[in-house]
Design brief:
about 375 residues; alpha/beta; DNA Methylphosphotriester Repair Domain; 4 domains; four-stranded mixed β-sheet; 12 strands; globular
């Protein structure tokens, strides 16, 4: 991933110079186009704030980006393995097709060999790659105002029920539950640690979770109840600001966030979340220390529950809470992400905040 590579500034300079030494070692994902490229791509160079760098094609695909048609970043693997070349060509020609292992066998390829080859080169199987492409097509169609049947067709699902099931597995509700004219909307935000789902109205962020978190569908269902089903698919202004600030955070430029937050919980739970926001980047706290801070020293277990109920990852930094013995303890996004986030924030330990205040200090929505 990004953290096994040189720093972002070095990689961006390599992109501007079209440095061939990074071919096969680093790729750039461009948020403004949804495309990923080799660093030697001849296309016009994107702005640095729109760039995220990964060390493998698989990571780019997992983050929801499509391969560039000018520099063909997947070509080296295709040239190395005839099976990859044949399947990638077929994937491009048969858009929306629901691929299966019998399809692979009919092409004269061994499915088990294909699985090993794709996992080795891309970190995912060919069938997983094809499914990601289909679901992304459906999401784009819905975000653009398309009807569910159009999204289903764009996603390549022959069965409406299969598309609804796959969509609901990710988003917590079937497509028809998302209102077209809603003021609260959900959309993808890509980060070096994987895609996230953000939910916001025109002024405040209500939810931010990693898309693969198991609790995400349940959290989105609660949001549907809270907003009486008036949630749509698409972008709101806070998401654009969030994307910019997340880019600065992961690039090592700035750990603070100014996106206004909306908290939904009891007074006790909100007190815990405010205490989390007050933890400086580069520092950690234990559950007992948080309990002391909010004036409830005996409520350590309740603090732990409130910490786990946080629905705005990173901006409400529950990853900065560890066990009294220094252990990482649980994290809904996965302990590997918690470890990465703590490593990232070490660089901020001696860096003053840009405004001298805790990020999002005093910006909670009055809900």
């Amino acid at each position: 991933m990004l953290f096994d590579l040189p720093d972002t500034a070095t990689l961006y300079q390599a992109l501007l110079a079209r440095d061939p030494s990074y071919d096969g070692r680093a790729y750039v994902c461009v948020s403004s186009t949804g495309i990923f490229c080799r660093l030697t791509c001849p296309a016009r160079k994107p702005k640095p704030e729109n760039c995220t760098f990964y060390s493998s094609v698989g990571e780019c695909l997992q983050a929801g980006y499509r391969a560039c048609r000018r520099c063909h970043p997947m070509a080296p693997a295709a040239e190395a393995e005839p099976a990859i070349k044949a399947l990638l060509t077929a994937l491009g020609e048969r858009k929306g097709h629901r691929w299966s292992e019998p399809d692979i066998a009919r092409m004269g390829l061994d499915p088990s060999t294909v699985r090993r080859v794709f996992n080795r080169h891309f970190g995912m199987t060919f069938l997983e790659m094809a499914r990601l492409e289909r679901l992304r097509n459906g999401h784009v169609a819905l975000a653009g105002g398309g009807k569910v049947i159009e999204a289903q067709m764009d996603a390549g699902f022959e069965s409406a029920s299969a598309f609804r099931t796959a969509f609901a597995r990710l988003m917590g509700q079937p497509p028809k539950s998302f209102s077209g004219d809603a003021l609260v909307k959900a959309d993808y935000i890509d980060t070096p640690l994987g895609a996230m789902i953000a939910l916001s109205d025109q002024t405040h962020l209500h939810l931010l979770e990693f898309a693969d978190r198991k609790a995400l569908p349940t959290e989105l269902r609660r949001m549907h109840q809270l907003f009486k089903g008036r949630i749509g698919i698409g972008r709101q202004a806070p998401m654009d600001l969030l994307e910019t600030e997340l880019g600065a955070y992961f690039s090592g430029l700035d750990p603070s966030f100014s996106v206004p937050l909306a908290f939904h919980g009891s007074d006790f739970t909100k007190a815990v979340w405010h205490a989390l926001v007050d933890i400086p980047a580069g520092e950690t706290r234990s559950y007992s220390m948080i309990a002391q801070q909010i004036g409830r020293p005996s409520a350590v277990r309740a603090v732990a529950r409130a910490n786990g109920a946080n629905q705005i990852a990173l901006l409400v930094p529950c990853h900065r809470v560890i066990g009294a013995d220094g252990s990482l303890t649980g994290y809904g996004g996965g302990l590997w992400r918690k470890q990465k986030l703590i490593e990232i924030e070490r660089r901020y330990a001696a860096t003053p905040r840009r405004d001298g205040l805790a990020p999002n200090s005093g910006k909670e929505h009055p809900m």
